[in-house]
Amino acid sequence: MSSEKEIIERCLKNDIRAQEFFYRLFAGKMFGVCLRYAGNPMEAEDILQEGFIRAFKNLHHFRFEGSLEGWVRHTMVNTAINHYKKQLKFQKEVVINEAMAFATNQDDGLSQLSVGELLKIIHELPLGYRTVFNLYVIEGYNHREIGIILGISENTSKSQFFRARNAIQRGMEKIKYER
Amino acid sequence: MEENQHLENKFRESFNDFEQTPPESIWEGVRSVLHPEPRYIGFWARITQMPQNSRFLRISAGAVAATIILFLLFLWLAYGNHRTIRGHAYAGEIRLCRGTAYLFKVEDIAKPFDSVKHYRSSVVDDNGSYKFINVIPGKYLLRIIPELNSTFYKIYEPSWFDQHDSLQAAHTIEVKSDDLEVDVHLVAEPNRIKK
Question: Selecting from 1.10.760.10, 1.10.3210.10, 3.40.640.10, 1.10.10.10, what CATH number does the domain A110-178 have?
């Protein structure tokens, strides 16, 4: 496959070989994205599969204005958000209006943590915390945008974010203690 | 605040190029949605896609094998041990032109002439040939009757094998394991043949 354009054109013609090439090109990175949003690897696999199906079905919307990887990633994050919304129906989220301050008197153990350990901490976060944290820290959305995306208030996004940070801090301490 | 920023940066850096190979089943799932299998699966496709220890497959294979064996057994019983009786009918030295050959089965060998039953009939052609196929083993009597339009009618009598004009005098033909070649010589009408 010579270029992104050729891959996309062949994918739009439902060429299975091009679709497989497309999938294998981005599957690793996108699984990484999904693992951050999911509560466990199996949930991440569900999001990844659904995300790729969605990407293939909406590929005709791609206008070659940005990178293809960025577009696929955006699709994957949207899928994860939809997944969050579906799950929210079955979970009662803890909402607090008052932002909690992050404890600052901790030792810096961050540099010693592996990606696997960070993922473990993320997976242990409640669904809402995890989603808000990912959108804010990794995707770079602000709380107002997160509120619109997830259908929650800006203050709820903030409070969930601070709670997520606290939970992450506790998770880090736990890992350091176990070492 | 600096600590907070540090935490966020750490996450950003860690997950910036984070990759993990997903299980192969994900692609299979995506592919099955993009290219669904046709709903109808043919009989042979079903068979070939079945696991080899499938109960249905074992039962089907057994049923097919049993059917084939029964069919072959039926064929053998129906035709396997059947034989052919063929031959010519003669009027004097020449072959009889047209007539009918009758084959009678002797049901009771102890009473051959009291248990005779018509078994089959066959055309005697212009060359005097006749043939009975698929004849089951047993004892038979054979009778040839010249056709009404035949030149030999009224010259030669309807006759039994091998050259007799009465049932009591006829010779039986025994069909065993081989085909038989049986010629029948018609009996001449006493007053019609000049000696």
Answer: 1.10.10.10
Q: Are residues B8 and A27, on separate chains, in Cβ contact within 8 Å?
A: no
Facing A118 at nearest CB: one of B3, B11, B30: B11
Indicate if the alpha-carbon torsion angle A25, A12, A75, A44 is positive or negative.
negative
- Helix, strand, or coil (residue A161): helix
Residues B117 and B127 sit within 8 Å (Cβ to Cβ): no
ipTM comes to 0.74
Its pTM stands at 0.51
Q: How far is A71 from chain B (nearest CA, A)?
A: 16
CB B176 within 8 A of CB B115: no
Q: Provide the pLDDT for residue B59.
A: 82
Q: CATH 1.10.1740.10 in chain A, residues? A: 4-88
Q: Answer for the pair A35, A14: CB distance below 8 angstroms, yes or no.
A: no
CA dihedral B102, B107, B108, B113 (to 10 degrees): -30
CATH annotation of B83-188? 2.60.40.10
Residue of chain B with shortest Cα separation from A26: B19
pLDDT tens readout for residues A127-171? 888 899 989 988 888 899 999 888 888 888 888 888 888 888 888
In the predicted model, residues of chain B with pLDDT beneath 50 are 194-195
Q: Name which of B103, B190, B91, B94 is nearest B147 in CA terms.
A: B91
